[in-house]
TrEMBL record:
<keyword id="KW-0378">Hydrolase</keyword>
<dbReference type="InterPro" id="IPR006311">
    <property type="entry name" value="TAT_signal"/>
</dbReference>
<dbReference type="GO" id="GO:0016757">
    <property type="term" value="F:glycosyltransferase activity"/>
</dbReference>
<dbReference type="Pfam" id="PF03734">
    <property type="entry name" value="YkuD"/>
</dbReference>
<keyword id="KW-0961">Cell wall biogenesis/degradation</keyword>
<dbReference type="InterPro" id="IPR005490">
    <property type="entry name" value="LD_TPept_cat_dom"/>
</dbReference>
<dbReference type="GO" id="GO:0071555">
    <property type="term" value="P:cell wall organization"/>
</dbReference>
<dbReference type="InterPro" id="IPR050979">
    <property type="entry name" value="LD-transpeptidase"/>
</dbReference>
<keyword id="KW-0133">Cell shape</keyword>
<dbReference type="InterPro" id="IPR038063">
    <property type="entry name" value="Transpep_catalytic_dom"/>
</dbReference>
<keyword id="KW-0808">Transferase</keyword>
<comment type="pathway">
    <text>Cell wall biogenesis; peptidoglycan biosynthesis.</text>
</comment>
<dbReference type="GO" id="GO:0005576">
    <property type="term" value="C:extracellular region"/>
</dbReference>
<dbReference type="GO" id="GO:0071972">
    <property type="term" value="F:peptidoglycan L,D-transpeptidase activity"/>
</dbReference>
<protein>
    <submittedName>
        <fullName>Lipoprotein-anchoring transpeptidase ErfK/SrfK</fullName>
    </submittedName>
</protein>
<dbReference type="GO" id="GO:0008360">
    <property type="term" value="P:regulation of cell shape"/>
</dbReference>
<keyword id="KW-0573">Peptidoglycan synthesis</keyword>
Amino acid sequence: MALERIENGVLPRLDRRAFLVGSAAGLGALGLAGCVNTDGALRAEAAKTYGPMPGEKFPIPATDISKLDPKYFRRTVPYVTKEAAGTIVVDPRNFYVYRVEGDGTATRYGANVGRDGFLWSGDAYVGRKSEWATWTPPKEMIKRQPEAAKYARGMPGGLDNPLGARTLHLYQNGAYTLYTIYASSDPDTIGSGITSGCVGLLSQDMIHLYAQTPVKTKVVVLPA
């Protein structure tokens, strides 16, 4: 009310100290309200981005974004690079995956990455793509985790499958590296190192990236 009256040129007679204190309090409240509204708008938009996908072969439920740090929400960000448009850049140190857009920007996704001892870096490319892929644990994993042996002949695609709804299989020099960029249904994992070298995006983000990524797309994994 006071601010409206000031704008209309009808400020009542007040001593200077009372006016300054009152204005500071009012403006402070406006500032806090702006932060709350901005955060609320951000989360409202994220709720749409990470909403349910009932049309999938195995319907994907909405992601619980309350478990996701807002810095990992999908967004378009300034990004200067010499890499060509469409290139995927993995930044394991900061838990991000970028898709270079070619106009000084990139689409940025929050990610989980390899845990200590399983991190790697270098150039690769997408050798093949899979939707609801069968997951077969490598022999090395079965040795480390004998409980995975029951899937030695493959685990069919589905919501419980570790590869999730979409998978980009990474190759180097014509050979499959056994590393993938895959879909995760667990927001708690984003922003952490938990895998055996693979990179996970939330299902909604992975489907978004997958749709824009043809076979042979270059993938750059930065040092951690």
